[in-house]
Amino acid sequence: MSLLWLVLLPVVGGLLALPLRDRGARWVALGALAAALALVCAVWSAGDGGRVADLSLAWLPQMGIRLHLALDGISFVLIVLTLVLGLLAVLASWTEIRERVGFFHFNLLWTLAGIVGVFLALDLFLFFFFWELMIVPMYLLIAIWGHENRTHASFKFFLFTQAGGLFLFVAILGLVFVHQQATGELTFDHDRLLDTPMSEGVAFWLMLGFFVAFAVKLPAFPLHTWLPDAHTEAPTAGSLVLAGLLLKTGAYGLLRFAIPLFPQASATFAPYAMALGVAGILYGAVLAFGQRDLKRLIAYTSVSHLGFVLLGLYAWNEMALQGVVLQMVAHGLATGGLFVLVGMLSERTHTRDLEKLGGIWDVAPRLGGAGMVLVMAALGLPGLGSFVAEMLILFGTFRVAPVMTALATLGLVCATIYALWIVQRTFHGENRGGWSFADLRAREAGVLAALIGALLWLGLYPQPVFDVARAALASLQGVVSGGHS
Amino acid sequence: MNVMFYVAAVVAVACTVRVVTHVNGVHALLYFVVSLFAVATIFYLIGAPFVAALELIVYAGAIMVLFIFVVMLLNRGPQSVAQERSWLNPRAWVGPTALSLVLAVEVGILLFAGDLELETQTRVAPKEVGITLLGPYLLAVEIASMLLLAGLVGAYHLGREGGREGGREGAHREPGAGR
Amino acid sequence: MNGTDLVALGPLLALGAAAVVTLLSIAVRRHQRATATIAGLGLVAAACALPAAADVAPRQVTALVRIDDFALLYIGLFLAAAFATIVLAHDDLRRRAEPHREEFHVLVLLSTLGACVLATSTHFASFFLGLETSSVALYALIAYPRSGPAHAEAGLKYLLLAGASSAFLLFGMALVYADLGALSFDGFAAALLAGRGTPALVWPALALVVAGASFKLAVAPFHMWVPDVYQGAPAPVTGFLATVSKGAVLAALLRLFVALGGVERPVVVWTFGALAVTSMLAGNLLALSQRSLKRLLACSSVAHLGYVLVAFLAAAPVALEAVTWYLVAYFVTTLAAFGVVTVLAGGDREADALDDYRGLFWRRPWLAALLTGCLLSLAGIPLTAGFLAKFYALAAGTSEARWALVVALVVNSALSAFYYLRVVVAMAAPAPAAAPARRVPLGAGVLLAVLALLLVGLGVYPAALTALIRATATALS
Amino acid sequence: MTSVPTSHVLLLAGTLFAIGLVGLLVRRNVVFMLVSIEVMLNAAGLAFVAAGSHWGQADGQVMFIFVLAMAAAEVSVGLALVLRLHQRFRTVDADAARELGGEGVASPAYGAVAADGGDE
Amino acid sequence: MLRLAWLLPALPFAGFVALALLGRRLPRATATAVGVGSVGLAFAVAVAIGAAWLAAPPAGGAYVQHLWRWFDVAGFAPDVALFVDPLALVMCGVVTGVGFLIHVYATEYMRDEPGYARFFASMNLFVGSMLTLVLADDLLLLYLGWEGVGLCSYLLIGFWYRDAANGRAARKAFVVTRVGDTAFAIALFLIVRELGTLEIDEVLVRAAAQWPAGGTLAILVAALLLAGAAGKSAQAPLQVWLPDAMAGPTPVSALIHAATMVTAGVYLIARMNVLFALAPPVMTAVMIVGAATLLLGAFSALAQRDLKRVLAYSTISQIGYMFLALGVGAWSAAVFHLMTHAFFKALLFLGAGAVLLATHHEGDVLKLGGLRRRLPVTFWTFVIGGAALAGVPLVTAGFFSKDAILWEAWSRGGPVPWAVGLLGAFLTALYVSRVILLTFFGEQKHAAEPERGLRIQLPLVALAALSIGGGWVHGGFDRFLAGDAHGGEALFEVVAAVISLAGVGVAWLAWRRGLWARPDGALQRFWRSGWGFDAVYHTLFVRPYVWFARANARDVFDRGADAIAGLARGGNRLLVASQDGRVRTYVAGLALGAVVLLAIGVIFARPEPAGAETATEVRP
């Protein structure tokens, strides 16, 4: 039951926050998330490192749908990330969001609840349920509290993810019916649908359905175009959740569902997926450099970073997968941090235009210093989490696809170019805008320090994350064993 | 007898065409009445005398009268004829006629696909109709009564103010028409 | 016809009697509340007759109607919807200060009766009469108020088009009859089985019947009246029109095509497939730019009927379950949505333009939340009934491997989210100058609360409804 | 008795139906539109009777009676509406009654919508 | 004593953390104490370790200190561990020793900077990273240090961040070195795939055992490492960033872009010399790169007008010598030259810095002159450094180290590399003399303040002493490093001495005749521009990249989404137009629908056999 509470805590918290004003809503949100964080840690530490909690209740028995939640290493890592970033999102929007505060936190918490649910669900129907559930509040976050062009961006976000999600749904249904025809059992349970016998063609198309949905969310090149818009227009907390968490659900879906459910088809598809990953890495990095809007720029860096994830996923060996898990966490922290930083910056300057910014270091060296570290994380500087993650992915991928890995490595150069461009255009240069404002306040510095601290920790001693994820990854690989290149 | 059918058919078609094309409301309705007569004849010819009578009594007798009444009520003389004429500009005919032609041709294709050529046509007497109507179709009659009740209440309400007469007429006529 | 038959017909008889009693009560004394109470009690009485009828079901009463669990479920649904309509209309009519508000209830009862007959019909005669009873009452209901601007226009439009569509329907029926020599659904099945008739005539003729029915279902290209009529009709009537009259026709079509041996024939698949796809597309595309909530819901209903037809095309047990589930969810959602529209009407005009909904979240949070729930349900978002409904539609399509339809559904579903969300965003916009808000009357409030509970309840705990539907669906197949 | 092929009668019915349809499509006068619907309904009735006679059954005629009843009900409500419309618009022009009708209609109430609608 | 090795990187890192977090709030004196003190302490530790080592070298000639396991994934488990051996010790000594002197110098040089704490934070971070690099037991940790020094280089080049040109130079440095790093990274991928570890000793052992000499894998790995080294050490064709890097403060140029970081490539190849030995073609390539860069740098240095740019090209050229030595397999000679170069090049840069301080950052040698009297200490130390660079025989360290390389080039590589080296020696003497003559001799053209205090002069003097004395330890150095010593042939020493003196002489003659101040010829311009590499790279890479990123800033793939939206909008317009409110239009729709449905009926019902269930299912 504790797993159900893990989802319900943010839900209930959201409902409680709904009628409250300002401080009240914020504290309720913090409380709910902290409670959930404590709960998930408690549940995890009570287990033995495998699938530590497994809850399966009948939901719609006539259709073989169960309320099946389970927590294993990968879920745990991602849920902790979710809740931590959730906490930071609340803190980061402390002064940015001033109107409709209760409703804001309601949406934020519900998004987080959906994300937690996605990371827990082992029933495909339930998974899709949460998958869709998180979109709407996220949409509202962008559509209501976003920047100038929010309507367009929020629609785009919604339509892309919704369309992808429905293809996923169709693929799920297709899989379930294929399974039913083969075994006579109508079930949506992930564990039972593994090893569904089916023809190659069917498997390929169903796999593609899964892949498209997850690729949209990831976002994989060339389905990434919603992301820059959504990121650009979202409020800080929205960008943080979007970059830090929502994108991870796509990677998680590939990791947990798309590949294990269709090992053969995925193996066939792997070269193409990896090529898309590489294309995303390079394309995202190049386009990032061309942007004028700082948030848009960072959004494209996400495309680039998530390309590594795609690449690593389809390499499907332990090294790459551990790298993927770490990359998800590190990207969440680094890019999330950048968005928080930009939020703080634009809260002060009211612009994100790189042509107008510049010379911020003069005014706010602490902000600049934090920005420098986060930017360095974005370019994969050793000592920070992203480095270990990207390296592991590349180490792993190199065993299967040396040429693609080499191309992907070029992405590191492109990353340097955009990362330094951010520094130059924002913090360095002359203070053309005549900016003058207060440096980071304690709360803001705390948020950034937490993110940076976590990144350093992951960069210098990431072993705990690997230990947590190891058993889960091993079991996933066991499922696929033999079926993959 | 065959000949009579075709004559009646031609009359029916011709008159109906006039109904649709005539600019004077009253005249058009009179053509319709003639058309109904022709159809009634055909009913009779194909062995359905009871409905032939009903066609004349209810359709021509009741419903058409209702129409004529309304047309007279709203009639504004020659100017309405002129207006009617202006509304019927030749170009307006092309699309609808084409559409209807396609429909008619499709129906024709169907009918010749069907095996309906040489069947015997038996006469079905009014008595038989009555027995059927109040036997197996009793329930349907009841439902029809509800249908007419709905028409009655509806027409009564809608025609209540301003169009008082029209509403009353409708309300009074219908029970007779149905039963 | 014997006593058992009468028990079986109980709900219909009760409904007819209620109509007559209500009419008589008006003759005695005009009093809106009393009339409404009597009409409501009539509906309750009809509902009370359902269990008794269920005991003797399934039962064929003459060749015309068949009372079985399937029919009773639909009748129950229609009765509930009619009850909701009366509750909402009570408020609506008072607001309009109509001089003669009482006949409204009679008409609702009659229209419901027609719908119920449709749900039970196993014969062209009852099919047609049920349809017409329902329609004729609706003409008057749509044009009922005298206060609003365009009610008469909407009524007349509906009448003219419904008349034409009825003509198509009847002509199709006549052709079927000419070919098969039977008018009952069982008769068709027998005739087809015996090899009587020409399929090349029968199926096109049935296509005409479908065309007539499609008008009622408002699937494209028979949908063009929908936006105008939905907008022109008073909101409670629109809700009724959107639910009961469509549900009834769908029930009848289900019965007809199950009797005809399913939907496996290419001609049937193509007919309904084409209707489904055009409906989804037309409805959703049309809805994109609507600035009137009622028109928007109208267009959305066109699309939804397209989705239903996808479910309709599955093999019998799946199709019945899926269609019925969809309809229940759609009923709940639509009634709730139009309920909100009704309640929000202020002064002399309805809350129709999207601008009326700007900032609703901050002015009327509960109503806005409910309307949001409705819109999300229509968009098929989890936690709402509509999500499960869409699940069923997709599951039905997938189970028969109708990928083209499934893909069309998916694409359209995504497209539709656009305009639903537009409304949600409008509601979440900063509130404009506060307009004086009418209080929600108790009856309507309770009704909306119940609908809201159902909306979420069905989305969270769908198993009970599925069990119920599954029990009744077996009656048909 | 005559031995007119049923198909000929049905063909006549089809023709009348098509003419009625043309009328409905062409006329702007609401009354004429109602008349045209009557023509179509009558054609359907004729088809029923012909079919019934083809099979030697009374059912066709019974159906005709129901059609008749329905036509009557419809006409009465229809004409009542026509009168109301006439009161309001002083015309029987169906096209004049276009207060409803979305963005396609250039009425002041809804005409302004088309411009900013459909923003994606 | 060796157990204190961890303090070497830890001390500067601690300094960095303290300065970065508290920098602005610390009083200047405290910041100085932290910034200089941390490096000084590290130097002390390095000296202590060196002494302990000399007293009692550990068994096996190396000492490994495991700090913690970085991570352990799929059998790949790099440690954070320090590897102390003579090579590492030499590097540590250079880094901390020269670093300490430069830090001291910087306290005066950067005296008036508002970013004083930031400067020392970065410098400390650099020293820490550099020590991590040289002490790393594992290639991944080495890579961490490698990137870390790159970052510091970037931060310090762009230290005066308000000027966009500095930013550009900093970015250029980082990006170009990162191109090399990419190759380095790919080499790591290959090593991990083939050998399963990145621990340097283990890699070398396994490579020697598993890879045949001249095998493809060895060649590939070595070539990739060479590319990495070339990037960091500013060797052709990746040398373009170093001259621009002079935008940074002069202590930075001295420490990072002369003494330490740029020699990391040399260190890498020296460290991996076993592996390179397995790939003879790559060795040749190293030699060729070194030789080419040597000449390229020397010619360019000859044509520069800016004092620091001369030194920058000189650095490029000198590292070319080291590569030349590495290429012929004389890695200890390379490292020896690395050390002496660190001394005298740092000295030269610091001297140049002193000049710039006096002249308010006027670096154009043609506008200077006659500073010898105004800045005597600077002058004399600069001359010593210049002499060391030019390889003036017997008294300078540069002579010994360069001579060792020339000798090795002859004995192991044959006459061609030797001749190139000799030509380079001549050019070196020529350009350094030119600079000295133009700056310090002749008449004073530019106003100059008197010399600053002890904190400037002390490091100059100390480095001058090292530039002279550093060469005398040659024999001991070789023994310490490689376990054997071999003196050069006397004949070669004479030839080299003559050549360098000839260079000095030619330069003096040219100066007397005023040739250095003559207007530029095309060749000079070409040399000054660094052989046109910048222009080529700009056209080939930079401009297309920027063009594409800017032109496609709105993302062509987004147009796909727009197209779908447009389609929907078009459909919407069409359908909205059909909703014209006319009943007749609606009836037409009705009729059309009926006609179509009928047509579907007619078409699809026909082929079906009567009354039979269809076998073939047509599913839309």
Can you put this structure into words, describing what you see?
Chain A has a domain at 262-485. Chain A has 20 helices and two strands. Chain A has helices spanning 2-17, 22-45, 73-92, 101-120, 124-133, 135-145, 150-183, 190-193, 200-217, 226-233, 236-261, 263-290, 294-315, 318-349, 360-363, 365-378, 385-400, 402-427, 442-460, 463-480; strands at residues 53-60, 65-71. The two termini of chain A are 39 Å apart. Chain B starts with a helix and ends with a helix. Chain B has helices at residues 2-21, 25-45, 49-74, 78-87, 91-113, 126-134, 138-158, 164-178. Chain B folds into two domains: 2-121, Up-down Bundle (Four Helix Bundle (Hemerythrin (Met), subunit A)), CATH 1.20.120; 125-167. Chain B is globular. With 179 residues, chain B is mainly α. In chain C, α13 (316-344) packs antiparallel against α15 (365-379). The longest helix of chain C has 30 residues, at 151-180. Chain C has a domain at 286-477. Chain C has a two-stranded antiparallel ribbon. Chain C has 19 helices and two strands. Chain D has a single domain (6-112), classed as Helix Hairpins (Orthogonal Bundle), CATH 1.10.287. Helix content of chain D is 72%, strand content 0%. The longest helix of chain D is centred in the middle third of the chain and has 31 residues, at 59-89. Classes of the chains: A mainly alpha (485), B mainly alpha (179), C mainly alpha (477), D mainly alpha (120), E mainly alpha (620). Chains in contact: A-C, A-E, B-C, B-D, B-E, C-D, C-E, D-E. At the C-D interface, α5, α6 and α9 of C face α1, α2 and α3 of D.
Keywords summarizing the entry:
heteropentamer; B: 179 residues; mainly alpha; Four Helix Bundle (Hemerythrin (Met), subunit A); 2 domains; 8 helices; 0% strand; globular; disordered C terminus; E: 620 residues; two-stranded antiparallel ribbon
